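Dear colleague,

As promised, here are the two records you asked about, laid out in our usual form so they can be pasted straight into your sheet.

NAME FIELD: protein one
SEQUENCE, THEN STRUCTURE:
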Amino acid sequence: MAGTNAAIGGGGFHHVAIGGRPPPEPKEAATMKPSVPLFALALVLACASAAFGAEGSVTAPGAKVEKLAGEFQFTEGPASDAEGNVLFTDQPNDRLMKWGVDGKLTTFMQPCGRSNGLCFDAQGNLWACADEKNELWCIDPKGKVAVVVKEYQGKLLNGPNDVWVRPDGGLYFTDPLYKRDYWKRGPMEQDCQAVYYLAPDRKKLVRVADDLKQPNGVIGTPDGKILYVADIAGRKTYAYDIQPDGTLAGKRLFCEMGSDGMTIDSEGSVYLTGKGVTVFDKTGKQIEQIPVGEGWTANVCFGGKDRQTLFITAGKGLYAIRMRVKGAGSQ
């Protein structure tokens, strides 16, 4: 188990001299019963195994999912700012909500372009997939909105869904098609549902993946080297190597599961959503399932002052669970 060590009995077993008896002769030693009964040894080993298992869990010992707030219509897109406050969307009600580190819930912005996925950059700007008019917004710390992307090659996007900002300021967003009854537009204009890259200078938008059925969740590693993209309709998640120019290479299957939203922790494990939260280690092996009491779990992020609480948007509620691990450096 990476990054953990366990000490048994304060440093190991010690030989015990019983009643001052001298060491046995070799023949007697061969038939002597062990000074530690076998059942006791088995008990110690079982406890050690249990301790390793508990430490291997990504959740904190004994932690349970708790509902923080409810009465929303459908929650989505959680993202944590530098202080640990978590912003999320109540998308059908067209509002951005804020769960503060003080445990208070407030409305951050309404209307908000029916925002979906969110992500903060290093300057404290909030990037929002504004679904109402198929745009990508940048909201500065004072709440001023700039529409940064609204089309690709002169045609309307399908509907930006999730976004991740890499360390140098370049960003990736997914553009699946989920037809909305509030749209005032014609049929799909793009020829596919794709993943896009926007350079740090915000001048060039590039389509970097066009062979997925319906890309949805997206997250990258804090070193900016690997991008994970969930193909929710294809029921698979892929990993890509991020190139210096923002393009993607080395596409490979990460796991046989699609996802709505995604996040990543300090150990490199990737969190997928849908039926609760499913956690995969960096090799793509499933290591944990966190049940959530809603029909659909939409998205997740780490937040709180120490970034050691997992916030979960699911159905009509905002949920949280205390974790053993912290969130990765860039979410």
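NAME FIELD: protein two
SEQUENCE, THEN STRUCTURE:
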Amino acid sequence: MQIDDFIKLGQVGIETAMWVSAPVLIFGLVAGLVVSIIQAATQINDASIAFIPKIGAAVLGLLLFGHFMINRIASFTTWVYTQIPHVIN
């Protein structure tokens, strides 16, 4: 296995990690921004108020994109296992 193969493995692994984590992170970011805007408008500054909407948004992201995330991880795992013969040679 050449250095190019290791770079490709790392590149695909990082790309998969980004695609899998992006939906949950984006939903959490949007929920945090919405709560922050509401807190700024109402002048209620309590850190615990933003906690529950962020968790709810993360769960919603998992429910909506869970199938995509599992398929992406499964295809990456399958691809990695198909690369094993290249490592042996």
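A couple of things worth noting about protein two: The mean pLDDT is 91. Residues 3-84 form one domain.

Best,
R.
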